[in-house]
Amino acid sequence: MADWYFEDFVAGEVTRTMGRTVTETDIVSFVTFAGIFEETFINADYARTQTLFKARVAPGFLALVLAEGLYVLTGHTHHGRALLGIDELRLTAPVKAGDTIHAEISVVEARPSRSQPGHGVVTLAHSVRNQEETEVMRYRTVRLIEARKAAT
Q: What's the whole-number mean pLDDT along residues 91-98?
């Protein structure tokens, strides 16, 4: 299904996104755009010789943005009307330049909205993993999703 409505979200269902390789260009572009001029992100030699991970790593927010973009590509958010929250964000391992990440998203809860008729509130658990299936990030989102009945 490429076009999901609230009724299509069922507790326990898991979606796996496609993968995406994080490049040096991604890191430099994001850091420059966001103004996160930490030496660990902008100095490759320093990152390789002076940091805990001995490599250039991506800022955690870059990994979050990429994971959300991968989820959008599934089509599950096309009838989303609001992102109501991001909770329990944990960075569990570094994302290094050259890593390929994907996300596994589980539906935790889907309930009708009390304040927005014709919509539902969906809680999702996101696990972002690298090419070795190591979890690098986890978080929950709460989204307001249009119901199919409201669209017709």
A: 97
pLDDT tens per residue, range 16-60? 999 999 999 999 999 999 999 999 999 999 999 999 999 999 999
Q: Dihedral of the CA atoms 44, 99, 94, 52 (nearest 10)?
A: -40
On whether the CB atoms of residues 36 and 59 are closer than 8 A, the answer is: yes
Whether 90 and 138 have beta carbons less than 8 Å apart is answered as yes
Angstrom distance (rounded) from CA 63 to CA 101? 8
Contact between residue 9 and residue 145 where contact means Cβ atoms under 8 Å apart: yes
Going by their DSSP bridges, the two strands 80-91 and 14-16 should be labelled as unpaired
Q: What is the pLDDT of residues 66-81, one digit of tens each?
A: 999 999 999 999 999 9
The C-alpha atoms of residue 132 and residue 129 are separated, in whole angstroms, by 8
Cβ–Cβ contacts within 10 Å for residue 15, how many? 18
Superfamily in which the 6-20+58-151 domain is placed by CATH = Hotdog Thioesterase (3.10.129.10)
Checking if the pLDDT of 151 tops 60, the result is: no
Place of tokens 């996160």: 36
- Regarding beta strands 80-91 and 100-112, do their DSSP bridges make them parallel or antiparallel, or are they unpaired? unpaired
Please identify which residue in the block is written with the tokens 């943005």: 65
